[in-house]
């Protein structure tokens, strides 16, 4: 059970990443690979600040801001210099690798015994329920501190989801969605689509960096490699969410992204438990996203093939 | 209202594909006038519309709107004062967003887009009132994504979006050309209805001579990037499709003779 709880916590932490990927991929239709760098940037900055005694909450905010800066850079490179979205992201991602190394001063920055958001939550749960106390959950004995962390994250993610949903339905948010849906139309209505893209990709990477900051605090270290494969991971979460919950409205897709992130993490945990080689994780993730991307098209083609047979 | 002075635009300049699309167009539109622009393929009529809308910068000339020089304005800034309907019915609306959301976007033209709610229940009734005159049973489908609608319905909604808040200028770019004849007739009707109701200054590019004859109070015929003919008032009213055909023939005949050869002929024989 504790492994399930832990993977749910991981899933919730990564759901901020999924929200970021949802913004760039689904709202703007922008394949933003900056994510792989900005995730690490968020983690590295948070680790550095926390090790030097900064408040963990403040560190998260700084990471969010740094993520926004890197996203804005990608957006500016794409809109001002007309470089294709993927290449703009690759440029910033590559540059961030050096930045991240400079921030950490080495390739791996552990933070033993530091005050993180999660150590704070552990302390709170100790004061409330006593040390090492267990609670029965669905017949399993679970560490109560894990439950406290899980519930707190759930509240934080839900709040973020609601705020994002509210934002995307404001006048500004509606114009941003229209930019991704039909930029010619929204430009003809007086919107500067370039700024919309810059702001949107910045926001997306803010969420990604926040996810990285939380991840570093939960793991207890930041590593320069930790961003690799994160874009596909986020995309997988969004896609699973869409399959499970549907795409009928903004709220559903946001909820789906969070749910998808948790489900995906659980699936991975189960697969690892059943003896999957951890080295195969990324290839299986990639294959999964590939299948999810081509499946709707394949189903359509089969349908039309059947249709043709019927009338032949 | 709208003043164009000596507008020139060459595409792929300096290559073998060089096209002189606009070759010195000067034009003044009075407030409230409805001008049809007619011309054969490649005459520069759509380019003229795009030059006004700011899709690309012009090479030479000035564009003024209500006395303000807008020649250097980017597309989105000009769009605060201009509504546009495109030839492709898919171009003017956001397919994955609902009818309500599309209309709400249109109602913020030229206004700041902040953190106010995009659509609220109070506004729904207003949207319903807006789509009712289209007579396309859209009143109860406000929450449907636009992508599910037919081309005609989408083009009618694009007209609604383009004319919302009564822009200074309405630009229509062969907006019925991609529709079937029956739908085209219906959209034409709606166009006439909206333009008359809101007395919008309109520039309509068309290649339907029927439309050009029956709509608007002025007709401009473009040829080789220039204004070849310009009919106003009574002259416009008297025009028939046959007159236009004769003019087209005339232009074609002039084309057939190389300018150099023409000069030679007139020197020797006239």
Question: Which key phrases capture this entry?
Answer:
heterodimer, A: 312 residues, mainly alpha, ABC transporter involved in vitamin B12 uptake, BtuC, 2 domains, two-stranded antiparallel ribbon, 77% helix, B: 270 residues, alpha/beta, Rossmann fold, four-stranded antiparallel sheet, 10 helices, 38% helix, globular
Gap between N and C termini of chain A:
56 Å
Beta-sheet strand percentage of chain B?
15-25%
Looking at the structure, the CATH topology of the largest domain in chain A is ABC transporter involved in vitamin B12 uptake, BtuC
CATH architecture of the largest domain in chain A: Orthogonal Bundle
Assembly annotation: heterodimer
Q: Can you walk me through this structure?
A:
The complex is a heterodimer of chains A (312) and B (270). Chain A is mainly α. Chain A contains twelve helices and four strands, in the order H-H-H-H-E-H-E-E-H-H-H-H-E-H-H-H. In chain A, helix 2 (35-51) packs across helix 9. Chain A is globular, with a radius of gyration of 21 Å. The longest helix of chain B has 18 residues, at 181-198. Chain B has helices at 45-53, 75-78, 99-106, 121-131, 151-163, 181-198, 209-214, 233-238, 241-256, 259-269, and strands at residues 2-11, 19-29, 34-39, 60-65, 68-69, 82-85, 169-173, 202-206, 218-223, 226-232. Chain B has a single domain (2-109, 122-239), classed as Rossmann fold. Chain B is globular. Chain B is built from ten helices and ten strands. The mean pLDDT of chain B is 88. By secondary structure, chain B is an alpha/beta fold. In chain B, the strands form two sheets. Chain B has a six-stranded mixed β-sheet, sandwiched between helices. Chain B has a four-stranded antiparallel β-sheet with strand order 2-1-4-5, with helices on one face. The interface between A and B is medium-sized, with 22 and 35 residues.
